[in-house]
Amino acid sequence: MGFIVRPTKLGGGTDVVSGNKVKASEWNGDINTAYSEINGNLDSSNIKSSGAGIKGTQLASAPDGVATVNLNDGSVSTAKIIDAAVTTPKVLAASLGEDKLKITIHSKTVSINTGTGVTSFIAHCYADDTGVNWTGRLALTTEKSGAFGLWSAAATPTSSFPKATYDLIGIYVKNPSYADPNVTATVVYIFIQKT
To answer: Among candidates 98, 101, 106, 99, which has minimal Cα distance to 133?
Structure first.
C-alpha cells in the first residue's frame, strides 16, 4: 500500500491536540489505518532501505522462496556455490558457446604459387607476433623431380586481433590442396579475449 499516513485530527494535523477530546472516528482512523497496512499491504516502502536484517530463515521455503527472477545478474559468486553442487548435466545444459567463453575462431585462406610439377608437399603454419596485431604465415615444403623447395606467405586475418586484448591459443592448417601451380590452404586461428 505504501507509507502509512495518520488521518487528520480535530484542530488540524495528524497528532491529537492537547486539551481536545479524541473523537471515536479519529481513534479508529489511526488504528484502522495501521491494521489495514499490516494485514497484507506492507511493501518495500515500509521496510528500511538498508540494514533491515531480515534473516534467511524468515523467508519462505520452496516453492515460495526466492525465485531466479529475483536475483541480479552476476550476483551469485563461486564462493556461494557448494563444491560439486553443479553436476555435469547442468554444465552441459548451459550450452556454453564460443561467445560465452570469449573464444573467436578466424580463418584465412592463402594460395602460394609453387610452380608446376609439384608431386608432394607438406603444409604448416606459425604465428607471427612481431606486430601490434596477431598474424601468421603459411609455410610449405614441396617436392618435384627429387628437388625440395621452401615457401611461405602471410596469412593475415581479415579482422584485427590486438595482442593487448586477445591471446592466440591455437593455430592450424585446414584443407591444404594443390592445383597446378598453386598450393592453397586455410590457416585457422583460435583467439580468446582477455578479461
So the answer is: 106
pLDDT band at 189 (very low <50, low <70, confident <90, very high): very high
Residue type for position 6: R
Whole-number Å distance between alpha carbons of 165 and 146:
46
pLDDT in tens, 160-176: 999 999 999 999 999 99
- Burial degree of 79 (CB within 10 A; 0-12, 13-18, 19+): exposed
The amino acid occupying position 119 is T
Summarised one tens digit per residue, pLDDT across range 118-127 is 999 999 999 9
Q: Is residue 179 part of a domain?
A: yes
The pLDDT, as a whole number, for residue 92 is 62
The residue segments making up the domain with residue 27 are 1-50
Domain boundary pick from 30, 50, 70: 50
Helix (H) or strand (E) holding 104: strand 103-113
How far is the C-alpha of 139 from the C-alpha of 155, rounded, in Å?
10
- Structural domains counted in the chain: 2
What's the rounded mean pLDDT across residues 5-27? 80
pTM greater than 0.85? no
Grid cell 578466424 in the structure block, residue: 106
If asked whether residues 185 and 122 sit together in one domain, one would say yes
Give the containing element (helix H, strand E) for 53.
none
Under DSSP, is residue 190 helix (H, G, I), strand (E, B) or coil? strand
Q: For residues 115 and 49, give the distance between their C-alpha atoms in angstroms, rounded to a whole number.
A: 78
